[in-house]
Design goal:
It contains eleven helices and ten strands. By secondary structure, the protein is α/β, with parallel strands linked by helices. It has a single domain, classed as Metal-dependent hydrolases (TIM Barrel, Alpha-Beta Barrel), CATH 3.20.20.140. A hairpin with a 2-residue loop joins strand 9 (229-231) and strand 10 (234-235).
């Protein structure tokens, strides 16, 4: 059975706990198994309380930070001490060198497709994503909220990017970039898959964008946080005896 994910969900941290919990459980009712929740660092304790309260075998929450990166040096400074504090690190880039550096660095998990990326990411970027097991995130917010004339432009400019991604066999994930509580903008996983057909994405790949691909990104990200895993193929093994000797 497939498990569905939306890895970019914002919540209003000023709302009371019960309101936030109710809004997030609406995603569960729509069929989502896991959500990436954007949370500020000074509210991580509140996120952990939320996670303990809501999680069960059929619903998981993952903390996420969104980083806007205009240059490599600034991004290095932010990433220096952030990896162990969040489950997911997403980078929005405004420079091609910064984007390619972020893709090749081990700490980021997701590259967010923005206007800069639409105009500058080609097949070489898609192949770099594939080689480094990173995901490109495409928000379908415009298809859900914008007037029809803007939707037409969205389809035109993003369909080319999707063809590069598919050809390079890169991971990509789709999100609604929604705010929990704005239920009119939230879509069920199968609705998002249907919207991808408008971008000429094959059905089997559209399905992976809300299931297999985000799940792989999450598992990789959690491995990065695990102090017993040095790299993908290297783990620290405790070979002490039962007496600790």
């Amino acid at each position: 059975m497939l498990r569905y994910y939306d890895l970019n969900v914002e919540i209003d941290i000023n709302n009371d706990f019960n309101s936030i919990a109710k809004n997030l459980l609406f995603y569960k009712d729509l069929g989502y198994y896991g959500l990436g929740i954007v949370y500020p660092l000074n509210k991580i304790k509140e996120f952990n309380d939320l996670r303990r309260s809501l999680e069960d075998d059929k619903f998981k929450l993952y903390s996420r930070i969104n980083i806007k990166a205009k240059n490599i040096q600034g991004l290095k400074s932010i990433l220096k001490n952030i990896r162990t504090k969040y489950d997911l690190i997403a980078i929005e880039c405004f420079d091609i060198n910064t984007a390619h550096w972020a893709i090749q660095d081990s700490r980021p998990d997701i590259i967010v497709l923005n206007d800069f990326g639409i105009n500058n990411y080609g097949y070489s970027t898609a192949k770099l994503l594939s080689n480094n097991n990173k995901a490109l995130e495409l928000s379908l917010k415009s298809l859900i909220r914008d007037p029809y004339w803007r939707k037409s432009k969205f389809l035109r400019v993003n369909s080319k990017i999707m063809q590069h991604i598919i050809k390079a066999k890169s991971y990509f994930i789709i999100t609604t970039n929604s705010k929990a509580g704005h239920i009119y903008y939230i879509r069920a996983p199968r609705d998002l898959m249907t919207l991808l057909y408008l971008l000429d994405v094959p059905e089997n790949i559209a399905k992976k964008s809300v299931s297999e691909f985000p799940e792989k990104i999450i598992l990789q990200a959690l491995d990065k946080k695990n102090p017993n895993i040095i790299s993908k193929n290297i783990r620290v093994i405790n070979n002490r005896g039962n007496n600790g000797e």
